[in-house]
Amino acid sequence: MQPPDPAAAPPRAPGKHSSFEFVAHAPVLAALAGAGRVLDLGCGRGDWSLGLARRGIPVLAIDLWVDGLAWLAAQSHGLPLLALRADITAPLPLANGSVDGALLALVLHHLAGSGRAPGVLTEIARVLRPGGVVAIVEFLPVPPPPGPPLAVRVPPGEVLALAAGAGLRGDQPQPVADHVALYVLRKPA
């Protein structure tokens, strides 16, 4: 099964696999469009990774989900995409300043709920080049459905504080779906 093509498929209600199925693609892809190499952390089956790679952006997609990574690898032939099984809460197997962008799509609330968000964001900042961009797609703290319980959603002020603690700067988020926003953060040059 092919993931939706962002040019052809309008966002729809949340599905089983990916925020790519219901989040407006254009703002997320535009935030990372100038990046030379992007990390998709907690990529799931890699729909966002494929969307970026189909635009010629080299992607390193990282997740622990074996079946999702296998599906992604099968879909990515001929694309500038590498799928890697790794724990995003552990040190990333990358040199300092070696990537231009990173994506966390509906991952931050899981990390924040377990207390691991500060470490992951600090690690992203470490591997991000100065001036690099981080796109965070995350549920807003409004009553569900869709999405996780209200208690685990991370308020915008907290997202920005977590980012600032890692040395990343950004503005208030922009909506990209009902109950979902995009945070565009940068590592100072």
Labels describing this entry:
189 residues; alpha/beta; 8-stranded mixed sheet; disordered N terminus
Query: What is the terminal-to-terminal distance?
Result: 41 Å
What is the rounded Rg?
A: 15 Å
The largest sheet, given as strand count, sense and whether it forms a barrel, is: 8 strands, mixed
- Strand residue content: 15-25%
Topology of this protein?
Elements (H helix, E strand, L loop, with lengths): L24 H8 L5 E4 L5 H7 L5 E5 L2 H10 L5 E5 L13 E7 L2 H6 L3 H11 E12 L16 H10 L3 E2 L3 E4 L2 E7 L3
Parallel strand pairs: 1-2, 1-4, 2-3, 4-5
Antiparallel strand pairs: 5-8, 6-8, 7-8
Write up what this structure looks like.
The chain has helices spanning 25-32, 47-53, 66-75, 108-113, 117-127, 156-165, and strands spanning 38-41, 59-63, 81-85, 99-105, 128-139, 169-170, 174-177, 180-186. Residues 1-16 have low confidence and may be disordered. The longest helix has 11 residues, at 117-127. The chain is of the alpha/beta class.
